[in-house]
Amino acid sequence: MPRAQANGLELEYDTFGDPSAPPIVLVMGLGAQMITWEEGFCELLASRGFHVVRFDNRDAGLSTWFDELGTPDLAGIMAGTAPAPYLLSDLADDVVGLFDALGFAKAHVVGASMGGMVAQQLAIDHPDRLLSLTSIMSTTGDQSVGQVSPAALATLTKPVPETREEQIELSVANYRVTGSPGYPATEEYLRRKATRNYDRGRHPVGMQRQAAAVVASGDRTERLHDVRIPTVVLHGDSDVMIDVSGGKATAAAIPEAELVIIPGMGHDLPEPLWPEIVAAIVRATARA
């Protein structure tokens, strides 16, 4: 796959559809690689008349890792006594750098989870570069909404095992907790997904630095009031990773945002829901 020189680093990316069609850039979440946007989803979106781009965020997958910055002091960052290695605004600048590298004056942007936060930050920092905004299973940074459930937190904060096999098993366990109860995935699918992610570029300390960026970037609510970009917000009513209140708060903060609550959806993108998710994205693009 190609790499783009963007914002002083290298971003691994992939494309689908007609390069002359309107561009849609997909931004994935915390520690997640671009392959979490599955090929079938990207192809379905491309079939609606878009040039679809997915990429690895900094510190994830095959894009530039920032290991020289070390392991962040998350407790200190939460207390305000330690700096974060970088902020969500830096990840947003990476996306703008990708736009520039690919020759996009403007693009539609779709973000999931932390990627939704990055997309929101893009709308705040670079409104002139966005055609539309889709925020999926994300939140505003307001600590009173979008909380993680105790069960999910307990699973996701387990120490990272040493061996490949143990890390794959942990990922499968995490997927079971955070996935969509209304659209349960098979054991075979989860194990294949976990194995592919590990072998391609699993990077736990990079995920910690991304988490530090989320914590240190604070509440975007007031700044989201000024966003005037066509926006749709999607959230599952069964999300244990980011409670549905985060999606509701996001839609309430952005003027004229469309809110779509999907029954039975957790913190993933199950294939049976792809047509509904793509249709919502297309509605936002049509408003642009």
Automatic annotation (TrEMBL):
AB hydrolase-1 domain span: 22-269
Which molecular function GO terms apply here?
A: triacylglycerol lipase activity
The UniProt keywords, alphabetically, are: Hydrolase
The UniProt entry, under InterPro entries, shows: AB_hydrolase (IPR050471), AB_hydrolase_1 (IPR000073), AB_hydrolase_fold (IPR029058)
What Pfam families does the database record attribute to this sequence?
A: Abhydrolase_1
Q: Which GO terms describe its biological process?
A: glycerolipid catabolic process
Coiled-coil ranges per UniProt: none
Sorted alphabetically, which PANTHER family does this protein's record hold?
A: AB HYDROLASE-1 DOMAIN-CONTAINING PROTEIN, HYDROLASE, ALPHA/BETA FOLD FAMILY PROTEIN
Q: Please report the name of this protein according to its UniProt entry.
A: Alpha/beta hydrolase
What lineage is on file? Bacteria, Bacillati, Actinomycetota, Actinomycetes, Pseudonocardiales
